[in-house]
């Protein structure tokens, strides 16, 4: 299995010590993979996940705490909860700051395919 966790870690320049992306043996923790069935259950502002594909890697983010802080307003995120938000996310043209500083805080795992 390809170690995409390390790829994400590098891409995001992640430095938050509270989120362990790489297991002790350097392989992906299988518990960080989520099915569409699981992701789709998290579709409320009180419990919201989104999927974003970054460099062909589908990542899951728990954005619940980010919803009230989102600069575009909460409704922008709420309508994409529990689904793949990649197209809309890319269409907005988010700056590199979002990839490096914001998304890593909400990283949950990967889409199980």
How does this structure look, described?
The model is unreliable at 1-28 (pLDDT under 50). This protein is globular. The longest helix has 11 residues, at 96-106. The relative contact order is 0.23. The chain has helices at 4-12, 36-40, 74-78, 86-92, 96-106, and strands at residues 33-34, 43-44, 47-54, 57-62, 107-111. The two termini are 13 Å apart. A five-stranded mixed beta sheet has the order 1-5-4-3-2. It is α+β, with helices and mostly antiparallel strands. It is built from five helices and five strands, in the order H-E-H-E-E-E-H-H-H-E. It has a single domain (4-17, 29-111), classed as Cytochrome b5-like heme/steroid binding domain (Flavocytochrome B2, Chain A, domain 1, Roll), CATH 3.10.120.
Order of helices and strands: HEHEEEHHHE
Main β sheet profile: 5 strands, mixed
What is the CATH homologous superfamily assignment?
A: Cytochrome b5-like heme/steroid binding domain
Number of continuous helical runs: 5
Question: Largest beta sheet: what is the strand line-up?
Answer: 1-5-4-3-2
Number of strands: 5
Number of domains: 1
CATH architecture: Roll
CATH top level label: Alpha Beta
Radius of gyration: 13 Å
**Shape category:** globular
Distance between the termini: 13 Å
Helix-residue proportion: 25-40%
Low-confidence segments, ≥5 residues, pLDDT <50? Answer: 1-28
Secondary-structure-derived class: alpha+beta
Would you tell me which CATH topology applies?
Flavocytochrome B2, Chain A, domain 1
């Amino acid at each position: 299995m390809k170690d995409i966790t390390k790829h994400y870690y590098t891409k995001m320049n992640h430095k938050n010590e509270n989120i362990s992306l790489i297991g002790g043996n350097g392989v992906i923790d299988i518990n960080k993979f989520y099915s569409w069935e699981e992701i789709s259950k998290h579709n409320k502002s009180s419990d919201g996940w989104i999927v974003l594909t970054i460099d062909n890697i589908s990542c899951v983010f728990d954005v619940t705490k980010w919803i009230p802080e989102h600069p575009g307003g909460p409704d922008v995120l709420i309508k994409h909860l529990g689904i793949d938000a990649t197209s809309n996310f890319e269409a907005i043209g988010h700056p590199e700051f979002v990839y490096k500083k914001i998304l890593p805080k909400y990283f949950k795992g990967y889409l199980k395919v």
